[in-house]
């Protein structure tokens, strides 16, 4: 019988994944992957535990809430279900049944970036400021832009309203050309931390956490432009 205890980091990853998609297929091994229902966000994380078998969770928030019923939960895995138990009181237990994998959405492959025209470091402080500004002024979009002045900025704005309030921060970028890369703020479902970011003119971006093995591929909005 394999007994497993989930680390705080793994639980944080699962909570983050639940914000992207309530469905999750956990495969054998240490790599977790999820994909949003709209298929515009994919995330991958490597955790310290190695799961002994593949199983599907239909409602990840329910699974996490079940875990929270225990102070120090340990997990044991059967063919059809897993059992959560209190580490020092095995009479305190919950049987959690796996979902049918056919009704659970999961990515089939990890995305490969088609090109990488622009790269930059997105610090945790900058990301927090942009999200906070977006909430304060009601701006649904974030744009990474550089015009003929060759000064790069991150801007929180409403791309459909040129007279709406906007907030901007200067940022250092690598790469050539002029660009406007649009993101939906609601798609920036990133765990706390700083990220190495690459952006492709093919309207896809890659965020790699600098302190843990967590990364995201996030689609850009179709209005995005790039020219050399």
Model description:
This protein has 228 residues and is of the alpha+beta class. The chain is built from 3 helices and 17 strands. It has helices at 8-20, 60-67, 124-137, and strands spanning 3-4, 24-26, 29-35, 41-51, 55-57, 73-77, 81-86, 89-97, 118-122, 141-146, 152-157, 167-170, 178-184, 195-200, 204-209, 214-219, 225-227. Strands 3-4-16-15-14-9 form a 6-stranded antiparallel beta sheet. Strands 12-11-10-13-17 form a 5-stranded antiparallel beta sheet. Strands 1-6-7-8 form a 4-stranded antiparallel beta sheet, covered by helices on one side. β15 and β16 (214-219) form a beta hairpin. The radius of gyration is 20 Å and the shape is elongated.
Gist?
The chain is of the alpha+beta class. Helices cover 15% and strands 42% of the residues.
Salient structural properties:
17 strands, 5-stranded antiparallel β-sheet, 6-stranded antiparallel β-sheet, alpha+beta, 228 residues, 15% helix
What's the structural blueprint in terms of helices and strands?
Elements: E1 3-4, H1 8-20, E2 24-26, E3 29-35, E4 41-51, E5 55-57, H2 60-67, E6 73-77, E7 81-86, E8 89-97, E9 118-122, H3 124-137, E10 141-146, E11 152-157, E12 167-170, E13 178-184, E14 195-200, E15 204-209, E16 214-219, E17 225-227
Antiparallel strand pairs: 1-6, 2-5, 3-4, 4-16, 6-7, 7-8, 9-14, 10-11, 10-13, 11-12, 13-17, 14-15, 15-16
């Amino acid at each position: 019988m394999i007994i497993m205890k989930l680390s705080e980091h793994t639980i944080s990853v699962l909570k983050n994944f639940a914000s992207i998609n309530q469905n999750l297929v956990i495969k054998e091994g240490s790599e977790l992957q999820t994909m949003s229902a709209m298929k515009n966000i994919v995330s991958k994380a490597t955790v310290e535990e190695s799961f002994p078998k593949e199983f599907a969770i239909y409602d990840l928030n329910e699974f996490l809430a079940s875990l929270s019923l225990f102070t120090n939960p340990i997990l044991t895995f059967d063919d059809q279900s897993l059992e959560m138990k209190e580490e020092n009181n095995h009479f305190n237990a919950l049987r959690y049944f796996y979902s049918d994998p056919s009704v659970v959405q999961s990515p089939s492959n990890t995305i490969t970036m088609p090109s990488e025209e622009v790269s930059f470091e997105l610090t945790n402080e900058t990301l927090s400021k942009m999200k906070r500004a977006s909430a304060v002024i009601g701006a649904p979009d974030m744009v990474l832009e550089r015009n003929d002045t060759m000064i790069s900025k991150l801007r929180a704005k409403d791309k459909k309203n040129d007279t709406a309030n906007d907030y901007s921060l200067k940022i250092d970028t690598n790469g050539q050309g002029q660009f406007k890369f649009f993101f939906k703020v609601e798609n920036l479902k990133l765990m706390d931390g700083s990220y190495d970011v690459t952006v492709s003119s093919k309207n896809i971006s890659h965020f790699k956490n600098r302190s843990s093995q967590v990364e995201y591929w996030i689609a850009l909005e179709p209005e995005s432009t790039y020219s050399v």
